[in-house]
Predict the 3D structure of the following.
Amino acid sequence: MNPIQPEIDERYLNAPEEEIIAAIAARRGELGDRLLILCHHYQQEAVFRFADLTGDSLKLARLAAGRDNPWIIFCGVHFMAETADMLTGPGQKVILPDLRAGCPMADMATADEVEEAWEDLAAADPDAKIVPVTYVNSSAAVKNLVGRRGGSVCTSSNARQVLEWAFSQGDKVFFFPDEHLGRNTSLAMGIPEEKIVRWRRGEADGGNSAAALRRARVVLWDGYCTVHMQFQPAHVEYWRKKDPRIRIIVHPECRHEVVRLADDYGSTERIITAIEESPAGSHWAVGTEINLVKRLADLHPDKEVHSLSPFQCLCSTMYRIKPGYLLWAMDNIARGEEVNRITVDEETAKGARMALERMLEIS
Ligand code: SF4
């Protein structure tokens, strides 16, 4: 469970945003190389503007590992800060400005639940060699379990490579926590639908018959991203009718019904590159978090970039990293006080690193 966010002084919450921004800029200069600020692509602009490095969660953790800044503020969510803590050196402290910034998808698979499901699945098909694969959007405790059972982490960029590796190691893949990344990747690899089963949390044998579990090549945990699940096939149909020049690109955390109707799909990095490399005058509807879509629209005024959904899908937990919380964390660092440090105990980190290193070897 994520720790509790301490209360912060009201002035960080109530001061006009321009005052907070000016104070962050002043602190940033004062802290110099003692501090590295990492920002995920889904961060709001008022925070993102202070990023030293930007990227997806794994890219940021790996970049931070190559630096020697003693303080790292991770403007992202809890599992990202954990990964950064595990990949950086002992002299580096990783701070999450608001501890309430968790990932609902990661929270849908606790290590205890996964362990119990693993045992049930193994009992349902005792002759099969099962290989666990966890999406990077999972807790360190889940990654630890996967590492110790011979499995690997994957990201939305390398999920296919990791699944191909997993099938070279065993008969069946148990994939968590994102059902949709697992399904989209499995179908793209040509695995037939009848060999892909959903593991429903809280139901005996995940709601499956023993025969269905024995037949399955891929067993998918039924977790999902609350942001990407909001995109619907009707949104794709809307844009197709409205604009014949539209190109639709979505994230693989979207349900398959949306992915199969899109022109392309891929990780945040792939979405960014596709739009960057498209010719001036291109029209895009993008199925991912709204802060990234807005930034892409601002960065490419020569192109039309819209959200695929009219409802502006926002990651509300990522949005908790407001400028006031960033300033609060920086003020504490300036005083040498450690607040909101994210650490992973060495025993857990050891297994989790095995799963992360396996992924790095594969990809
Ligand atoms: S966008 Fe989805 S997967 Fe990413 S942090 Fe938010 S809830 Fe989690």
Observations:
- The first helix runs from residue 10 to 14.
